[in-house]
Design a protein that fits this description.
Helix content is 64%, strand content 0%. The chain has 266 residues and is mostly helical.
Length: 266
């Protein structure tokens, strides 16, 4: 079934995720209210096309579509998963205007649909530092896969995710190894501020999960000489594998210092 405003020359707008999400979100609701909103959106695009001309710049089009942010934010709660995903993709293109939608977008990291969760994560990755405080509460979600996705999304933010460093440090003690590993990887992208997590990361060298241990070692190597005293304490562990990893980590820290020193001397 075609929506009414497809028939009045607005197909180019419908090719954009903003147009599809808002259009279907309005049209799918029964009654004249939803259909009236659909027609109003279509008419608005036609008027805009006339005002700006057929060769309107992308920047001008995005300014016009930014007016749809409230409707797209509401569409993030649509019962249809395709609409939720389309709305998340549309908001990805609207920063910084989409800042008001961040809490609702972050909530989709716990969505029951995997595609919606992934789409929300990719959208949040592009929202910058404002997204981090909205993602942090998801690190305490009762479902491990949601906590892991929250940590992975914060890792993608890199330096923009620095507000989450204390929470990520706590998640290094998460009961799920995948979450512990994701938190350690995220902290690696947030240096030098993440050095406050050195002691907790050094404890992960004793972790029962091999992937977690190796990830912690790699992160500690990136933290440089400041990590050495905490790593050295692990050399007293009764487990020879743990002692071996601690020694190797110290070796890598020293090698990095030597390489860096050579580069400076040159």
């Amino acid at each position: 079934m075609k929506m009414p405003f497809e028939k009045i020359g607005t197909r180019p707008w419908l090719r954009l995720p903003q147009g599809r999400a808002v259009g279907w979100a309005a049209w799918r609701h029964n009654g004249w209210a939803g259909r009236t909103l659909t027609l109003m959106l279509g008419i608005g695009v036609v008027v805009t096309s006339i005002s700006y001309g057929q060769e309107a710049s992308e920047a001008a089009a995005r300014r016009h579509l930014a007016a749809t942010v409230p409707a797209l934010t509401a569409a993030l709660g649509d019962p249809n998963s395709a609409v939720r995903a389309e709305a998340a993709m549309a908001l990805r293109e609207m920063k910084p205007q989409a800042k008001a939608a961040l809490p609702a977008l972050a909530a989709l990291l716990a969505d029951g649909d995997g595609y919606v969760r992934g789409t929300a994560a990719r959208s949040l990755e592009r929202m910058g530092a404002d997204a981090a405080p909205c993602i942090v509460p998801l690190l305490w979600n009762p479902h491990a896969e949601v906590r892991e996705l929250a940590a992975v999304t914060l890792r993608a933010l890199g330096q923009d995710g620095k507000a989450a460093i204390p929470a990520l440090t706590e998640r290094l003690r998460d009961p799920c190894p995948d979450v512990r590993e994701a938190a350690a990887k995220a902290l690696r992208r947030m240096l030098p501020e993440a050095k406050i997590a050195i002691a907790a990361l050094a404890e992960l060298l004793r972790d029962r999960d091999g992937y977690v241990r190796s990830t912690a070692a790699e992160t500690l190597e990136r933290m440089g000489p400041e990590a050495a005293p905490s790593v050295a304490m692990v050399l007293r562990d009764p487990n020879p594998q743990v002692r071996d990893l601690a020694a190797y980590t110290l070796q890598q820290i020293g090698a990095a210092m030597w390489t860096s020193g050579q580069a400076v001397s040159r």
